[in-house]
Amino acid sequence: MTDLLQQSLHLAAVRSPVLGAVAVAGATGLLAALAAGLAALFVQMRSHLTWLLAARIAASGAAALLVTQLLGHVVSDPRPYLVEHYAPLARASLDNGFPSDHTLVAALITGWVGWLARRWAPLFAAGVLAVALGRLAIGAHHSLDVVGSVLIAGLSLWAASVWPWPPLWRSRALLPPRLRA
Fold it and tell me: Any idea where the Phosphatidic acid phosphatase type 2/haloperoxidase domain is (predicted)?
């Protein structure tokens, strides 16, 4: 499979030490920063955490995991560095490349942030883009893998948003009063 975007990003990252370092940081470390940002928002917004939010997060995460597992067995996409016989710029698995777990989790986190504190979602969305481009540049994934991950996350988030959750959950606090202060 010819993936011009992936090949171009990888070539640029190999030729430029600065771009290579940025690609590795985006591909490997940025996901932890996004998760830490979500955790910080949970703490900051703890008085606004509801059963509805918790249910949506759990349901979207479970749906994304289920779809990922199913499609991972149906769509076979060996990783670029294995197909083209080069060393990736950072550690990458040997298993099927579809979908990109890093991109999937980054996209889910961004959706959860959108439910919790919408104003922060654009910053997290930029993080998803950086993770996806980083995964392409280090040679861990093809474009199909990262686009598929964003679609899986988006559909899972949408399904959790439209599900008919009990109306009471919208206002029912997740945490007891002593932990909300």
Answer: 52-161
